[in-house]
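When time allows, look over one protein, given below as sequence and tokens. The question is which stretches look regular and which look disordered:
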Amino acid sequence: MSSTNIYSQLGKMASLRSGSGVQVVTPSEDHTFLLDEEALQKLLLRPDVKDRPVVLLSVAGAYRKGKSFLLDFFLRYLDHTYNNGDGGGEWLGTEDEALKGFPWLGGSERHTTGIHLWSQPFKATTSSGEKVVILLMDTQGTFDSNSTVKDNATVFALSTMLSSVLIYNLSQNIEEDDLQHLQLFTEYGRVALDETGGKPFQRLQFLVRDWSFAYDHPYGPVGGEQLLKKRLLVRDTQHEELQKVRQDIARCFEEVTCFLLPHPGLKVSTDPHFIGKLSDIDPEFKSCLKKLVPMLLAPENLVPKQIGGQKVKARDLLNYFKSYVDVFNSEELPNPMTILQATAEANNTSASSEARNVYETLMDEICGGTKPYLPQQVLEQEHHKCLNKALHSFDSKKKMGGEEMATKFKQLLVKDLEDLFDQLKAHNESKNMYRMFSTPAVFAALFLCGYLLSVLGDTFRVQTLVAIGQAVTIGAAVMLGVWIYTRMTGNLREVGIQLDDIANKIRSFQWPGGRQCGGPRRHHNTLCFPFCAGGAGPLPPPSARSAAAAAACSMPFSIHAWYVGFISWKTHTILITSLTKVSPMTLLYCL
């Protein structure tokens, strides 16, 4: 073997060895099933796969029939074709290479429990150019001595409902009880069919292992189709129950095929030290594998998962896992309508999630991150535009469950987006420079007014004014310091909110005449103190007053607005006279 081939084989083995089977559904002692949501999220929400449609291939059937053994050959093909980019060649590997992948053991006792997914998704491109992700699912065998009928039904039904290709692994032949079990587990799909008007499941692949009658029907797909046609044929002479079994299977799957696989060899089934070397496997078996695996996993044969006519992305599959496991964990084996309800809810949830993503993306371009502050009215208008686009996205998706369920989820979506808009409004408001500095400005003005009041009281020897001024000064300084501390450290957030409320109340204080304490008055292009007008009637123009009076009435309103709430009406005359040096008569004219 050339050095290039050696390195290729080593790379292939290392790639498979870095992955493993991850148990995502685990049976418990009380015969319920536990979903490992964290493991699923790591697998399905990876940035490189979460938005790709899923091709999910699962193998189900009786225990100890070689399901995990078969899946490991699928892994070799996927690794060779999609990881190494080699669509041809000997994907089976070298003759002395041990079989790695999903764990398997010989013997009579069950080995796999619950449901396992391979930890490494395989990214592929279909023959039509669509980028997909391939997942392999291994399931515990049915009808072992530790499982109840409900356990068997749950595992088989989960694998059927979640996979795009279900391989029904059978031993030696297609028996009548195999068909009846399949009918039992797919009965749920028949009810879903009545609701949606389409076949609920996609591809069913009968795989008959250890086929011993090659003289009747040859190995491979041709003999398989011959056998399948014979087994699923509905005849008038059949009992009604037997006819119904076959009709139900045909109604539940879009495509039903069959493949006959020979026995892998005596050493495989009897040698306890067998580790999967190709040299120990019968050549006929290997030859059939080379036909079977590409029929399922070649780019032109990939089948993306669909539910309700919509392709399921990897991130959507997480919702379906959670919904189905919750339903199957109910007290009794759920009826088909309950499973239909779970499917419809997961379907509507996925549509809602995609609509929310549309809204978040659009709004992020408008007001997210470091985008500048927007006036509230403009933000409201943009919100309604983005909301309508998100709802259009939701309405355009095909959804199961009927109009009533779609309306319910649409209402929940609107509420969710309105709540999200409230958060965006708060984020946008945090960029408002006026609101950002209004609270410290109030406390700073209070501090200044208190200081001026103390100075005036000391000047005129009015100790009451001095005490009030000092109290206001100290209180304002403390509140300002605490407010700065809450903003800088994030501690005492409730106290910071209360201080903002206090500042807002001071700004919005109403005098008996209906004037706002912090509200400047505009008259003849001049800002005046609220009390200059006395709360009644317009002021005369500045020309009608002395220059000093005009100066008094055109002072910055903020100083007066903050001190006026703390001193009496008589103190106004003293303070303004001191500040403006105008005569009492001029001041009375302003009042």
The radius of gyration is 39 Å. Residues 26 and 483 are 53 Å apart (CA to CA). Confidence is low (pLDDT under 50) at residues 1-14, 106-110, 519-591. The longest strand covers residues 131-139.
